[in-house]
Amino acid sequence: MNLLRYVARRAGLTVFVVFGITLITFVISHVVPADPVVSYLGEHAPPDLVEKVRHQMGLDRPRHIQYLFYLRDLIHGNLGISIMDNRPVSRDLAQYLPATVELSTAAMVVAILIGVPTGVVSALYKDRWPDQVARVFALGGTSLPVFYVALLLLGLLYSRLGILPGPGQLGIYTPPPPHITGMVAVDALLSGSWATLGDALQHLLLPAFVLGYYSAGLITRMTRGSMLEVLRQDYVRTARAKGVAEPRVVLRHALRNALLPTVTVIGLVYGGLLSGAVLTETIFSWPGLGRYVTNSMISVDIPAVLGVTLVIALIYSVANLIVDVLYAYLDPQIRYT
Amino acid sequence: MAGGIIVACFLVIALAGPVLAPHDPLAQDLGRRLSGPTRDYPFGRDSLGRDVFTRVIYGARISLVSGTAVVLVATAFGIVTGMLAGWNGGWWDESLMRITDMFLAFPSLILAMAISAILRPNLTNALLAIAVTSWPAYARIARAQVLTLRTRDYVEAARAEGATDAAILTRHLIPNAVAPILVQATVDIGNIILISAGLSFIGFGAQPPTPEWGVMVSEGRRFLMDQWWIATFPAIAILFLVLGFNLVGDGVRDLLDPRLRKL
């Protein structure tokens, strides 16, 4: 019952925060010095046409009315028309979001695969050389400029050595899979187009690694910390005393419990990946939200910018909500605060 | 320890920049553009014939000043917000912390891009944008500190002596709450340097010809495979400075977390 009440309160807060997010995005977009009507029509448009379009866009109304209209449209899933490509922003988002989700999820997998084992090794060999190496490796991930690493690996592995495919989701000669989820690799898998799947995974490898290595540092740190905590618990000592083999103690007794806090960090990391994807997508010509938002910002496409910012903040808030609920579920102490 | 040495080195480089730098960071020499590292030009020349070594040195100033400025603004704003919320409680607390939550929901890079695109992209706007997304963390820490410290005996004593709220906050609470805020700041500063370099790289931060490391990597990206020195040296500089701050942050955290020290 307590948990339910906590979840309800937390969900209510999220709704409130989302409402605030719409307000913030709206305010930011309306202090814009560049006139969206002019950037849409060009500088030499006749004044009466400018007025007409301004009216069409609702930009001649008072600000608070504009915000109410914006909210009304939002509830109907209408994010406005993109100035850049003249299509509904919601349709653009539906088109670009899957690629970003695909990349971030792949990066998440990479981050976990790198982060958890590194953290475990680091904790087992605390203050000895494997720990030092693991910590430098993890810190390196959070300290490297992602954009340079992406350029370097792309240059070396694609341009120079030709081991991995170049930018984009698929090679130009690979037939795209039928549209099911919009995520190329997933669609290829679902439709059984194995050649396409192989190509898609090869294209995914490098950007996912670049993006994932960055987040691996945080997971390493969490895993190390909670492993150290768990390893000195009585039940670990008991297991050892019973004569349980060391690998089994580490994996079954310690790691299982140590992973709880790590799981909750993963939600936060995922939100970070979504925004980290911006830089990665720009370099890998990945047709996701990051590239879309960069282009719409360059052309001051306000509805598009608002839409993307809103959707990402929304995903971020929902991820936070899930993390908090998960945490409360795993750790009863939290519920009473 | 190693982190401290790295950061100290960069501080010296930044402070002594004009003395250390052998050339003018903006002086072009198109005749010798893209020429590789030599004794006089240890990091080579870029696509406009400028000395990469000199530009990397000047970049240290920009990055250090950027990181420090953002952290200062964010901590100041965060401390004030957090203290007001924690000290006054009730309605103040609810409303200020909900506003904090809203800003916390924005991924920093995206909001920073939106703000700097809308306000015209330049370094100041980019830094302002990063500050806007960094302060909520400090507000939360400051609030938590005030909540635990406000019932301490010395606060009661000060109040009994007739000290005003403002005096208690500035004389007693802030000095005692500063440790965890400092930890957050050291951990943050490397990340801020990284984000601002990233923003400059995609054109939403410092603009050419500023000798900013992100801009330099961006300018050198076309030549990366052949004239590798143009982008690589500024990238290495970013790596080391950020690594330095992260190492310091790690060390400070371990030092202040007695649970970890005991192990």
TrEMBL record, chain B:
Keyword Transmembrane: yes
UniProt KW Metal-binding keyword: no
Keyword annotations from UniProtKB, A to Z: Cell membrane, Membrane, Transmembrane, Transmembrane helix, Transport
ABC transmembrane type-1 domain boundaries: 60-249
A Pfam cross-reference name: OppC_N
Membrane-spanning intervals of the chain: 62-87, 99-119, 189-208, 228-249
Main location: membrane
Gene Ontology cellular component terms for the protein in this record: plasma membrane
Membrane-topology annotation of the record: Multi-pass membrane protein
Localization: Cell membrane
Gene Ontology BP terms: transmembrane transport
Family the UniProt entry places it in: Belongs to the binding-protein-dependent transport system permease family. OppBC subfamily.
NCBIfam families: Opp2C (NF045474)
UniProt protein name: ABC transporter permease
Organism: Candidatus Segetimicrobium genomatis
